[in-house]
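Final report, Chapter 2: Outcomes

The project's central promise was a pipeline that accepts a single protein chain and returns its three-dimensional structure in a standardized token representation, suitable for archiving and comparison. That pipeline is now operational. To close this chapter, we reproduce one record exactly as it appears in the project archive, with the input sequence first and the structure output second.
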Amino acid sequence: MDEVEVVVAHSERATLRVGDMFLKVDADRGRLDTEVEAMTLAPVPTPEILWHKPPVLALAAVPGTALGRLGKPSTASPAAWAAAGAVIRKLHDAPLPSRLGRTGKSSEELAAELDGECEWLVANGVLPAELVTRNRRVAEAVLRPWTPAFTHGDLQIAHVFLDGDEITGIIDWSEAGRGDALFDLAVLTLGHEEHLGDVVAGYGGDVDLDVIRGWWSLRSLLAIRWLLGHGFDPFAPGCEVDVLRSRL
């Protein structure tokens, strides 16, 4: 019998791997429904859906290896990073997913959430006030009008798989919806700033790099409390706190 590997597990959801099958268990049925719908609509490589019986979704493993991991150097070539940018462009150019309920937060909502998290980080001694204040200023670049696109919503580097320089699949679509295209590019390159140029070259068109840097700061500031509360370490080398320090 194949061993059961726990890929990720916390109080909200868990992902298990058994052989070439992944089992996703989620307390929020809506997230699994979103994932199934997004993979059906997305014009990019996605995992094969084997079956869906809430609260469990079974997916076939995607061939290849992840583009990289947060906190670790990526061994993927510049061409592979550019290929990832090209695939993301194809997603963002697709028709808006009208059947998906998730829409990116407004600038006002983001600003309010950001202010609350910054206050919590400083008041609880999690981060120095200077570090938080500097990144709060950098994050303001995100707070501007934007045109909705079909976005993945959680395009971490570990969610993009490749074989050689070819993208074989993008996984974990539970946050997909109508969002800010530059958020996807920022999440992919979080902690891997050295590959931003390759991604943008593959993506094509004008990309506001200040907005991407703003998303690096904003996402990191907003994520730290959640990560600490769910057993993850944002202080690990190359992870969220180091991303914030790189803005100083």
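Archive annotation: The chain has a mean pLDDT of 94.
This record, like all others produced under the grant, will remain available to the consortium after the project formally closes.
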